[in-house]
Specification:
This protein has about 200 residues and is mostly helical. It has 9 helices and no strands. GO terms for molecular function: DNA binding; sigma factor activity.
Length: about 200
């Protein structure tokens, strides 16, 4: 198809091709067309308007800087841009969970050291730490599915959209992920039980 005909249609693809050439005006029109969709996806994943806006800004900085990487033969501009939004938002979720993991470990250590009636809290901290350790062992794609569904409080439909997979696939990943998580946790409990001395001896 003639390049000028594509450009005249003002599709996202044509705007991306012009952005590749450093055309700031085309980049601005590209932003106007798809920014609301990028923001909506980011907010859906993060459940936070401010963080969603930050991700949107980061995505379009990346789009401008890496426009040359876009190849219309490999997919649409819409998919190319939204994939970047999805990855950046999910990275933020993972980063937040990593912070929680560190906080859980610190809370457990403090509770263990004080030993002033906080045994139950210490146990809860151990359990949370065990779950997060199990998620690391589980691996992808089930790890992300469980993180977004339970820590990110997403419905199956939201999870499917956030990760770019069919609804049935999202449901299967959550179901299989929970089964894997239960299996790993049971294995960890068995290991811990073996290390606990029998008080009746």
């Amino acid at each position: 198809m003639d390049t000028m005909a594509i450009v005249e249609r003002e599709t996202l693809e044509s705007l991306m091709l012009l952005t590749q050439q450093g055309d700031a005006a085309s980049f601005a029109r590209l932003y106007d067309q798809i920014a609301p969709q990028v923001l909506g996806l980011a907010v859906q994943i993060l459940h936070d308007q401010a963080q969603g806006e930050e991700v949107t800004q980061e995505v379009f900085i990346e789009v401008w800087q890496r426009a040359a990487d876009f190849d219309p033969e490999k997919g649409s501009a819409n998919s190319w841009i939204l994939r970047r939004a999805r990855l950046r938002a999910i990275d933020r979720v993972r980063s937040a969970i990593a912070t929680l993991k560190r906080d859980d470990r610190e809370a457990f250590l403090l509770a263990s050291i004080k030993r002033d009636g906080v045994e139950e809290q210490a146990l809860r901290n151990v359990q949370r730490h065990a779950v997060r350790t199990s998620l690391e062992i589980m691996g992808e794609p089930h790890k992300t599915a469980i993180l977004l569904a339970y820590f990110g409080d997403m419905t199956h439909a939201e999870l499917a959209r956030a990760t770019g997979v069919p609804l049935g696939t999202a449901k299967t990943r959550v179901r299989d992920g929970l089964r894997k998580l239960e299996k790993i946790l049971n294995q960890q409990r068995e290991v811990l039980a073996e290390g606990v001395p029998n008080e009746s001896r």
